[in-house]
Amino acid sequence: MSIEGIQAFGELCCGCRLCQLLCSALHKGLFSPEGAYIRVQGDEASIEIRFLPDCRLCSACLKVCPTGALKEGDADSLRRPLPG
Amino acid sequence: MRIAYVDLSRGEARVDDAPHLIPRYLGGVGVNAKLLFDFLPPGADPLGPDNPLIFGAGLLVGTNLPTASRTEVTAKSPLTGLLGTSNSGLTFGASLKYAGIDHLVVLGKAPHPVYLLVSPEGIELKDASWLWGRDNAETLRLIRQREGRTAEVASIGPAGENLVRYASIQNDLHHSWGRTGLGAVMGAKGLKAVVVKGSRPLKVADLKGTLSLAREATERVLRDDSFGYTRRYGTVVASDPYNRMGALPGYNFRRGRIEGWEETRGRRAVAKYKVKALSCLACPIACRALSRLQEDHYFHGPEITYLLEFGAKLAIQRVEDIALAVRDCNLLGLDVISTCGAIAFLIEAKERGIVQGEGIPTWGDAEGIRGLIQDIALRRGWGDVLAEGVKRAAARIPASEPYALHVKGLELPVRDPRAKWDTWTLGYLTNVRGGDHLRTRSPAEHLLGGILGPLEEELGVSEEFVRGMDMPEGLKVAIFGEPPQRVSIPLMAKYAEELITLINAMGVCIRPPVLRTFGPELFGRMLEAVVGLRIRPEEVLLAAERIWNLQHLFNLREGLRIEEFRLPDRFLREDNGNPPLEEGAVKEALHRYFQARGWREDAVPLEEKIASLGLWEEASFL
Fold first, then answer.
1. What is the CATH classification number for the domain harbouring B424?
2. Which of A51, B160, B315, B417 could crosslink B363 through cysteines, CB 3.0-4.6 Å?
3. Are B161 and B265 in the same domain?
């Protein structure tokens, strides 16, 4: 199920990267954090969550996030691609 | 199963495929044990070139199966002369998998300091002379500057370089392969770091099956009663109950309770510093805490071990000081438990007038203790004596032996066994790596439950919980009774060891939400989905039993004697608020455990046991 947008809260992210692992498995058929359309980056104290332009907003990452760092948003919320 | 072999003496590397090892030894700790057994010439010096240092990612690592992040490091221990092995999480193991390697075996000794760079392009030996002498934070920073910020780093600090017998290998900076002195093995090889840059995707045998199992296993984790408190408090959840039951290792295992403990070092006292929950890769539990102790003083932790070791064993009161001492250990590369055991030994020896002189702190003297930590890592003064571990130090200081609290040469950790004799405390004797608490953990662990005698503890979980456990039904009846009414300590110890062995072979975590809910049936299905191995639950358990026995055979081959299955006299003679343990009762529990294992009274496995595990060749030295 596609959604309109995703809100990402790096301050809530625990850095498990389950979102990346699932994203790569669903869309590439392999486990590869670097192959995911979502990226969890930066120091653990200040994590940044970014999306690649190819993200299809399938929302699988939202469902697997264990800390509520990813939430469904409207089209104006944090959209792909993020700067950088 | 791809195994990379690096010979540091010759500067050569090669990679072999060894899929035949999986059905017998699974992965992680199991394959590590097999490689150590085969590659170490019997009796070889742990600090010599013949001791293989083996990194093994768990079999499920790199997938999204919950908590599958762990890597086992194994060698002959320079501290105990027996099995040296330790387990750690984060991302190192997954990166190794993404570099196309499951196990890395480091042999020989480099003529000058090197680090290894492992990537999908191959394995390179790189000069590390410019890193030698630097602490782990500097090493990590400089390596990432050169190799990129996504490089995963296992490194040693000055303690490993100086062959401190309980030096750790640091995983990133704040995590360790801590126990049994693997950092000294690395130091002896002239190996400053193993740097991994994995970027190759990982393919599993059945992707759909793996994803389905990830959902199922995550449900088990999140629905377990232990999930909430593990997320909220992490490991420090046990801090208050330990004090209440008199299980603190206070003042070198002399005070089980400490006044003001809960206000200063209890779970709420430390939880107030927590700013964020952090995870290892693929873990939905997030038990790790990032804490802010002061304006600009962030700290990864505290973990329960830090509080019990620095806070109780050495009686440092302020969490801020405990954090600084832990940071020292991380920077220098020292195992926290053995470091605290060694320092506690010296402080008590001084208190009793056995030793004197400069550089010996007193209980709770954070500054003095931190100074001694530096001395240990740099082998200065008393630090040089303590760097050998308490067993060797006691042999050098007349009349000090009663204050050296160890089993089989490994300094005892965190919990006083007099507070409660149970599966955990029997594990102090039976653990294949010596006096340690992390390889014999019951999935029905109930800290505050009562004991019904030396052989049984109270059932601390509900009948419904037992019925739902992922565990063969016959074993449940033997261990818990029918209907479930108690826990047989010797039988549970055997099962608990096999369960932890599976956990460390698969590469998942031993936190309660996993320990209580995963088992041979689930692991069997995971094996089929991830590596395509069709295996029944009883065969999964048999593999774990084979691994445990192989580790035990390794110890026997390297000289383990039955006399070493012995708790320090302190626990058998002294009252610390709780009465001493009865020696006869401890012996009886051990005797029953040996029976359950199919071992003779002298701990030698019976022929039938060797035959059923297919370990004839390995046992041929007996």
1. 1.10.599.10
2. B315
3. no
pLDDT digits (tens, 9 = 90+) for B539-585: 999 999 999 999 999 999 999 999 999 999 999 999 998 999 999 99
* Residue contact B280–A25, C-beta within 8 A: no
The residues of chain B scoring below 50 in pLDDT are none
The verdict on B438 and B510 lying in the same domain is: yes
Instruction: Report how many domains make up chain A.
Output: 1
Q: At what angle do helices B319-332 and B336-351 cross, to 10 degrees?
A: 110
pLDDT of residue B308: 97
On whether any CB of chain A is under 8 Å from the CB of B129, the answer is no
Residue of B nearest to A31 (CA): B202
Sign of CA dihedral B273, B275, B280, B282: positive
Complex ipTM: 0.95
Asked if B32 and B142 sit in the same domain, the reply is yes
B70 CA: distance to closest CA in chain A (Å): 13
Minimal-distance CA residue of chain B relative to A12: B276
For residue A64, the enclosing domain spans 5-71
Element containing residue B174 per DSSP (H, E)? none
Establish if B62 touches chain A: CB-CB under 8 angstroms. yes
Nearest Cα residue to A23 out of A66, A70, A55, A48? A55
Which residues, in sequence order, are bridge partners of residue B4?
B15, B104
How far is residue B323's CA from residue B329's CA, in Å, rounded to a whole number?
10
- Are A14 and B286 in contact (CB < 8 Å)? yes
Summarised one tens digit per residue, pLDDT across range B493-524 is 999 999 999 999 999 999 999 999 999 999 99
CB atoms A25 and B286 under 8 Å:
no
Residue B28 near residue B523, CB atoms below 8 Å: no
Which residues of chain A are within 8 Å of residue B286 when distances are taken between CB atoms? Answer: 14, 16, 66-67
Q: Is A46 on the interface with B (CB under 8 A)?
A: no
Tokens at B325, concatenated: 């001492």
Kindly state whether B280 is in contact with chain A, defined as any CB-CB distance less than 8 angstroms.
Answer: yes
